[in-house]
Amino acid sequence: MYDLIIHNGQIVSTSHVSSPDTWIGIQDEKIVCIQAGPLPHDASKRYIDAKGAYITPGGIDTHVHLQQLQVAPGDDTGDTFESGTRSAIAGGTTTIIAFANQQRHDKSLYPLVEEYHRRASKDGTWCDYGFHVILTNPTKAILDEEIPVLFEKEGISSIKVYMTYEARRVGDRDMLEIMLRTRKLGMTLMIHAENDDMVQLVIDHLRDNDLTEPHHHAIARTPLAEAEATNRAICLSNLVSSPILIVHVSSSAAMSRIRTAQNDLQPIFAETCPQYLLMLADAMRSSGHGGCGCSHSAEEKAEDDGFEGAKLICSPPLRESKDDLDAVWKGMINGTVTTFSSDHCPSAFDHPKGKKKGLESGKADFTKVPNGLPGVETRLPLLMTYGVEKERITVQRFVEVTSTQPAHLYGLQHRKGSIAPGMDADIVIWFPNGTIQEEISNDKLHHSIDYTPFEGFQATNWPR
Amino acid sequence: MYDLIIHNGQIVSTSHVSSPDTWIGIQDEKIVCIQAGPLPHDASKRYIDAKGAYITPGGIDTHVHLQQLQVAPGDDTGDTFESGTRSAIAGGTTTIIAFANQQRHDKSLYPLVEEYHRRASKDGTWCDYGFHVILTNPTKAILDEEIPVLFEKEGISSIKVYMTYEARRVGDRDMLEIMLRTRKLGMTLMIHAENDDMVQLVIDHLRDNDLTEPHHHAIARTPLAEAEATNRAICLSNLVSSPILIVHVSSSAAMSRIRTAQNDLQPIFAETCPQYLLMLADAMRSSGHGGCGCSHSAEEKAEDDGFEGAKLICSPPLRESKDDLDAVWKGMINGTVTTFSSDHCPSAFDHPKGKKKGLESGKADFTKVPNGLPGVETRLPLLMTYGVEKERITVQRFVEVTSTQPAHLYGLQHRKGSIAPGMDADIVIWFPNGTIQEEISNDKLHHSIDYTPFEGFQATNWPR
Amino acid sequence: MYDLIIHNGQIVSTSHVSSPDTWIGIQDEKIVCIQAGPLPHDASKRYIDAKGAYITPGGIDTHVHLQQLQVAPGDDTGDTFESGTRSAIAGGTTTIIAFANQQRHDKSLYPLVEEYHRRASKDGTWCDYGFHVILTNPTKAILDEEIPVLFEKEGISSIKVYMTYEARRVGDRDMLEIMLRTRKLGMTLMIHAENDDMVQLVIDHLRDNDLTEPHHHAIARTPLAEAEATNRAICLSNLVSSPILIVHVSSSAAMSRIRTAQNDLQPIFAETCPQYLLMLADAMRSSGHGGCGCSHSAEEKAEDDGFEGAKLICSPPLRESKDDLDAVWKGMINGTVTTFSSDHCPSAFDHPKGKKKGLESGKADFTKVPNGLPGVETRLPLLMTYGVEKERITVQRFVEVTSTQPAHLYGLQHRKGSIAPGMDADIVIWFPNGTIQEEISNDKLHHSIDYTPFEGFQATNWPR
Amino acid sequence: MYDLIIHNGQIVSTSHVSSPDTWIGIQDEKIVCIQAGPLPHDASKRYIDAKGAYITPGGIDTHVHLQQLQVAPGDDTGDTFESGTRSAIAGGTTTIIAFANQQRHDKSLYPLVEEYHRRASKDGTWCDYGFHVILTNPTKAILDEEIPVLFEKEGISSIKVYMTYEARRVGDRDMLEIMLRTRKLGMTLMIHAENDDMVQLVIDHLRDNDLTEPHHHAIARTPLAEAEATNRAICLSNLVSSPILIVHVSSSAAMSRIRTAQNDLQPIFAETCPQYLLMLADAMRSSGHGGCGCSHSAEEKAEDDGFEGAKLICSPPLRESKDDLDAVWKGMINGTVTTFSSDHCPSAFDHPKGKKKGLESGKADFTKVPNGLPGVETRLPLLMTYGVEKERITVQRFVEVTSTQPAHLYGLQHRKGSIAPGMDADIVIWFPNGTIQEEISNDKLHHSIDYTPFEGFQATNWPR
Question: According to DSSP H, which parts of B336-447 are helical?
Fold first, then answer.
């Protein structure tokens, strides 16, 4: 009757943890039956014993950059769809949503989406995937003709825009026009909220003063720039009553602004990522390792080529103040955060074609180093360890932000995000706290990147 | 294999609505199996066809006053445990928690609890029940010796205190001492938060000026008194880090104070009731009917004995400003409200022993009329109608505040509050919106009270 | 010894009202002596008897548009420096600061300032005056070379920028660059804060639907656009620690955001104007008269050419909600408002060269009607009447917002803004409440405009 | 013509600093004339040269405890009216308001006030004085009969109540009844806002654990207790629309709550004191000296009898967190603070009758040490030094909080609080910053107390 039976685990939903003798029957990659106590025996079935384990719905990572088309030829140095999804599945993530990014000169999205499908299917993927479209030039034709087609025919349920980066930022009017369409179609609009002019002013002043070491990145992209843009995005959304998701919220001011909007019943959602819960800007100063506290020998430090800090450059940056980190945790706990993603945006530092961009001068320059961290594999173990097992959040809340709510945000709730009869059999098994005591190490990860920003962090649990 | 099968309904949890072909197998009053598609046929089973219906976990009403010991002899005019639970079950509520109230002179709680058990078991009950203990004189012996025993032996998981009513109010120091114990044991402390001195000052001034018609009740118990006491309770809780539940929140100021505390991760929970979502103080002025909009003939008005308004007297009162009502809805929607109860506190107005207290003078005097409304039966249909079917809240949120979260608050989450294998088979079936179009009428209710405050309100759905 | 003696008045400062027998001795247009009781008698002096009157420092109106260079040739239809200052002095204003506005193509400010001096001196002025410079194209040369010169040589102590209007708006980066200079020099930066993209989106939609009657102006320039831009300006200021003045604050959201910044010790100042205290958008619907409540005969209404509403078009617009008006009063009372100006920006409606722009189609179109109201003369009498005499504010606060604080904001505090020995003899005498009971009427005003938006409003006091 | 001329100083008001050549003519202890430039010469006059100096109105210290009737006989160990006012005048304070405190058993206030007048007049005073009445038992007779008499006949313009201290606290109902009277008469109601039950709970727990060293005082009287009581007082005031002054505000939460009320136009005033701007609780741990940073030799430490910390015990206590201190400064700067007083409440530690109460056991016990610090003399120099000369506040704001606003609060504005013709000649001269560079030392002070909590603090200015 069932292809697979998982027996004696505790199924976790956003509000319930089932009794420890729960059996799950799976057939044709769908969950068919959940029962208290044994399902009828059948010798031909495959069994997995989950005795003593939590069973959570498969992780959904909705913020993953893979094989994106870049401006410069040498940019494609990170994960492929194959290596990225391999890494995802190894970390308990069974669905990813990656980005198909429009260049300013692209007149149509169709060839773009086609190209991304080609890239994804080339070497196969290890887990389910979908696409967001990044708009940088939202022409009327794209908005009125192409987006509805992509939404209905291609299942593309989300658009992303940037309020920062010279090559990508869109103005307020464009954002409003996009919001009018996403609202109408029921799509999710993701917004990278940083005020570009504020950031650029500071960068220019820093560069004029030759202050370009990696840790100045945190000064350049001040929390004020995130707060301003977040408020602006919320006001724009408010004008046209259109739901938006502020991605990778990293500061107290932005989080608090979002909470106020949510309290007032505005449809504002928030995403955050492991790096904003676990690391501070200080980590960019030293030889890295993200404040994990592990010690380095004098020898190691001498060998340090100055790029350890640069590896932690992402945008928004790791914040300087612990108040920001605490506020992100608070948002994680009190419900402000809707979804928890990795913002996996990897660049290998020792690239076959030569050393990384930004190292040319022999000195890491934050204005040249590519932004972004790898993290699709470590996302769930880190939140399970630092969130659930350190008793900051419940395991139900873990399920909510890593799977159930992401599924709702992106229109997948009828197939994914819950363990229930009729749903996809995307299942993760977590054995209890304490059975694992190890440090995260890039050696054990499955991406094709030569470092992890979380090297040396604890992982007291890991999905089976 | 199963005693009962409910087939083809959509099970609702706090975050998921199952596919429409879901079958539930029940055995020995427990849910045993949930399956997408048919369970094995067996001629001896009882079947319920739920095709097209929502299936929600049984309602838990945690604020119900039944047969309470009163000061004066003529007070016991409301529902018995028998009639109250009959009314509950007819409205989709499968578990109630009633109150065992200490009088100031009671030196021990044991006889009290025993007496309440006697009362509840005398004529039987139609649904599950439990008790909260109301403390008015928390002696050291009660706190240190009796409460732990009642918690562990009698399953009493909650205490209630009043900050108002001369005969019941406890001081800040007593509240702190109680909080220290509830925190230690993991009990829930329910607080009726109104500043009694503020209320009494206004009542005295109104009485001095002969302003005692029912609608002055709303002026006497100003939202300011609720806001002050709510803040005080939160500060006291904060001092000793003890979780509390503010019951029947009725005003914008109190709701907003609670939200702030929740945002700051303080363990403050909120309850509200149908009357604070659906009626304003104005309804106490006229011949009543709670603002339902139904018309009354001149004849009816002439016959009005002045008591229609008095029937709506409860504490906190119906509020004068629509802002307060809107704020309670906002709290219901944005997550501030943890639990939705009836505060069923009935008094029959035409009592066998004579007309109601407060009518002696031939004129309804709000300072004498007993406070409290009946509502255990109408609670769920009203929230389904005015919340879910008017699209203010999702059906998942309905389940959250009427069942799942109440179960968690009172330690019942391992047996009640979710539809999952292993849980009690407390199940409510709701056929879709629009199949019913009727007005609530006391004729159709099952309590032993001669009115409902919700007479004439719509009910577009009713549990089967 | 003295050229002029004012005797037996009560001098008002921001915190003190002097005893009623105060004598002021003036010489060479300076206040020389203040004495309790008579100054030595001298037959040659000029005496003014102020018995029973308040004596306030001369009004300073820091937001006055006069004879501005416009884009289109027919635009110069309002007051000249001569008629504008005549109107000012007749309303108790002894100093105005007008605008010298850069056009986008102006490469230098020098000819501009020269031209404005020429205009102001052409026919003489009735009171003191100064200039702000409006920047629309802040080139490096202008910022680094010209502005310091204008500040030091020409006494230009303030710059204004617009965040709205296609022809004038400057971007965030330009605002930041300007702020860096104004901070360094100690100049005041005035900001017209409305998000242009938000406004334009609504205008485009209204125009597409042919909704261009005057009252739609209030919908087009939503409070949200003001709130967004105000927050952005405050964030930009915060980044570079530069003081700014948000001009003509008209909404609750903007006022509240400014208050928060002030509470946090950020150097954010606020200006408001009579129209935002006294009129609502509804006045643009009818035949006008600003909600003063005066009645109009059917005949008058029949004759109405549809332009009464158009006369009230200003930006930000009169607000639709009384909450906004109340919030502006609140800011006036609680100290948020730093300065109270007229934003005198007059356009005669029956212009010699033909009917007003916007009337071409025979139907007033808010997208074409010039924005701005005349008000330099009515500013002080309106605040004295509706503020002081209706007991919303004290007469000390009146002095603070109409004279003392404006003097400080624009670097005039050593000569103006207080009645004290050594200061300019800019003095206004107000006889007590109730001695005048009349309605404002354009007949009695001294500007060269053919209407006042405050026609029919009460003035229970008027400066002598 | 004048008895005294002060020439060439700069008179400071709340909004103006006069030109440096200002002459003041004084006659019969009243300011008669203020002139820019010389007053007519007359050989008989007394002259004071104030060249280069600021001239401020005499300080008004409205929170001074002198020779209060105490419960226990040995309590009268502090300053007399003679020594207290001598100390006041030496520090630039020309008016004090002291307390006449009702004991619970006092049936009438008349003998009480008489007794205080006797005490004050016994040895004479060096400056003007008045009384507040402290109510601990506000009987109807006192409220309705005596208070109006004392207000009209005795010029007692203020009442004080305590929300803490077993012997003094009054309940909410009593506060409301008092507020109704103070509002009617226009008196100021001063409130010491700390929740006594919260404080007592913590004290009991600390005492049970033998944690009674001085610095535990700061833990016992937590900011939460101040925040709760402050909110409650504001709610009570709000109910009856009665102005109140929250005295000695010491924490961020209380200050912020007051600001919110002020923003909403509620008549809530705030007082703070030097100790809450300049010292943290940590100073109670060590051998004292208030965090002034001066070093102590090992010898000094060995000789320390443990009482240095005890000398800093006041209520509310010095706060543990710098956030609180910063918030008090913020309130001082942004206008929340209405008045700045000393709360001079002195107790000599080496009393002639034997060592201080609280030392009996040989160990300082915070639960026994009398609360209160001496400070009437150091109040103005400290604010001038740490406020004005460190550029936190302007000298105008200094005048506002030390003189002008206190005069208004207590009905003295027609005689005191400003330097203007007709006012009392209460004048303080401050020579410029930097002419003095010394440390405060008890040797130089004029009270009869054997220590100052500000020993070693800087005073870069001192009144002449």
Answer: 379-383, 395-399, 405-409
Total domains, chain A = 2
Identify whether residues B153 and B264 lie together within a single domain.
yes
Which pLDDT does position A446 carry in this prediction?
94
Distance in angstroms (rounded) separating the CA atoms of residues D175 and D162 = 9
Strands B354-355, B350-351: pairing kind: antiparallel
Distance from CA of B202 to the nearest CA of D (A): 9
CA distance C452 to D345: 61
pLDDT confidence band for A304 (50 / 70 / 90) = low
| pLDDT value for C287 | 53
Among A22, A263, A392, A405, pick the best mutation site for testing chain B contact (most B Cβ within 10 A). Answer: A263
Side-chain-facing half-sphere of A439: CA atoms under 13 Å: 14
Q: Which two tokens stand for residue B93?
A: 């509520």
pLDDT attached to residue A35: 95
Question: d(Cα C1, Cα D72) in Å, to the nearest integer?
Answer: 66
Using only the alpha carbons of chain D, give its radius of gyration.
22
Q: Are residues C12 and C151 in the same domain?
A: no
Indicate whether D94 belongs to any domain: yes
CB–CB contact B176 D201 (8 Å): yes
Residue type present at position D81: F
In a domain, B63, yes or no: yes
Contact criterion met (CB < 8 Å) for A413 and B16: yes
Quote the percentage of chain A above a pLDDT of 90: 80
* pLDDT tens readout for residues C355-378: 566 666 667 889 988 889 999 999
* Across D39-45, average pLDDT: 77
What span, in angstroms and rounded, lies between the C-alpha atoms of B135 and B182?
Answer: 12
Verify that A35 and A90 share a domain, yes or no.
Answer: no
- Does residue C16 sit at the D interface (CB-CB below 8 Å)? yes
CB contact under 8 A, D173 and B197: yes
Instruction: Return the CATH number at D252.
Output: 3.20.20.140
Asked if D130 and D14 sit in the same domain, the reply is: no
Residue whose entry in the numeric block shows the structure tokens 């201080």: D356
Q: Which domain holds residue D14?
A: 4-49
Helix D196-208, helix B172-185: angle, nearest 10: 60
Whether residue B84 sits in one domain with residue B19: no
Q: Is B425 part of a structural domain of the chain?
A: no
CA-to-CA distance for A16 and B282, rounded, in angstroms?
Answer: 42
Q: Which residues of C touch A176 (CB under 8 A)?
A: 197-198, 201
Summary count for chain A: helices (H), strands (E): 15, 18
Residues of A whose CB is below 8 A from B14: 13-15
Nearest to D235 among B172, B200, B224 (CB): B224
Calpha distance D76→A324 (Å, rounded): 52
Give per-residue pLDDT as tens, C225-254.
999 999 999 999 999 999 999 999 999 999
DSSP B276-339: HHH-BGGGGTSS-GGG------HHHHHH--S-TTGGG--SSPPBS-HHHHHHHHHHHHHT-EEE
- Of A414, A430, A459, the last residue of a domain is A414
pLDDT in tens, B185-226: 999 999 999 999 999 999 999 999 999 989 999 999 999 999
Query: Can you give the pTM of this predicted structure?
Result: 0.94
Same domain, D22 and D122: no
Mean pLDDT (whole number) for C124-132 = 95
Q: Can you tell me the distance from the alpha carbon of C160 to that of B368, in angstroms, rounded to the nearest whole number?
A: 66
CB pair distance less than 8 Å for C238 and A232:
no
* pLDDT tens-digit map of D411-447: 999 999 999 999 999 999 998 765 677 899 999 999 9
Which of A414, A431, A450 corresponds to the end of one domain?
A: A414
Q: Residue D456 domain-assigned?
A: no
Q: Are C124 and C150 in contact (CB under 8 A)?
A: no
| D70 and D92 housed in the same domain | yes
D32 and D162 co-located in one domain: no
